Amino acid sequence: MPRAAGKHSPAPLNLDAVDTADRLYASLADWHETVTDELDLSPYMPTAYVAGKRLQGISTQHAHSAATMAGRISTHLDRACIYEWSGEMVTELCDVVRAALKRYPDEERPLYLPTPCPACDMLSLVRTAPQAFMGRAVISCRTCKETIAEDLYAWHARRVLEEMAEREEDEVPA
């Protein structure tokens, strides 16, 4: 069956994420070029360019280039702030980063768990992702602030479910 005009075949990944990364990288590269030119800094050619032409798409090599460009802008930000375009640069970079983070957060959202809290029996246990690399997730109650170690949660969940099943058996009239 032929595809409708303008339709693309399915991709093995979300192309919106690639487009978002492209916009972020392009904005950073454009402002880096402006800062480099205006402040007369030594040129830096990011890996996303071949023969002076910006490539479409993003790869792992771009992360190094993006970090380098952001570092160079940051290092010379005090000198760049005297130019009238600096406000526009900060606004645009903040906007593209904010839009990317809104759609693709860099932190895992809290996960509400289906098991009651062992201290207050409220359904308010939440798993919060580790806040640092190699950190530990935190399971806590939003009501009473009880904390459960993540490695003990499975045991706790089994225990609570067994207790609930026993209570239901006791309540069923014979």
Helices and strands, with pairings:
Layout: H1 15-38, E1 49-50, E2 53-54, H2 60-75, H3 77-80, H4 86-103, E3 111-112, E4 125-128, E5 138-141, E6 147-148, H5 150-171
Antiparallel strand pairs: 1-2, 3-4, 4-5, 5-6
Q: What does the model show?
A:
The protein has 174 residues and is of the alpha+beta class. The chain folds into two domains: 15-103, no CATH class; 111-171, no CATH class. Helices cover 48% and strands 9% of the residues. It contains five helices and six strands. The chain has helices at 15-38, 60-75, 77-80, 86-103, 150-171, and strands spanning 49-50, 53-54, 111-112, 125-128, 138-141, 147-148. The strands form two sheets. It has a four-stranded antiparallel sheet with strand order 3-4-5-6. Strand 1 (49-50) and strand 2 form a beta hairpin. It is elongated.
